[in-house]
Amino acid sequence: MEYYLQKTYYKTASLISNSCKASALLAGQTAEVSMLAFEYAKNLGLAFQLIDDVLDFTGTSASLGKGSLSDIRNGIITAPILFAIEEFPQLDAVVKRGLDNPADIDLVSF
Fold first, then answer.
1. Residue 101: pLDDT above 90?
2. CA 33 to CA 37: how far, in whole Å?
């Protein structure tokens, strides 16, 4: 899970958090306020990505603008899968096989 959060920070949250920090600094705010802006935006970016990952399971192709389950179909392991593995350890072997089999995708997306 820690790797997922780090990847998510670099993929999504870093742009938002550093932009907010820079905006605060450019607006003449203190270093403390700038870091608070950074932390707030970092958490906002992480939350945004987590919601996006959940929508991959719960949304429809029409609402997402892409196929549902596209992450796991492309071999991308996201938070819902990681939480499912914690709850159902037998899924770990399925995920490690690479999810090439459509039956595996059905099993993981229960």
1. no
2. 6
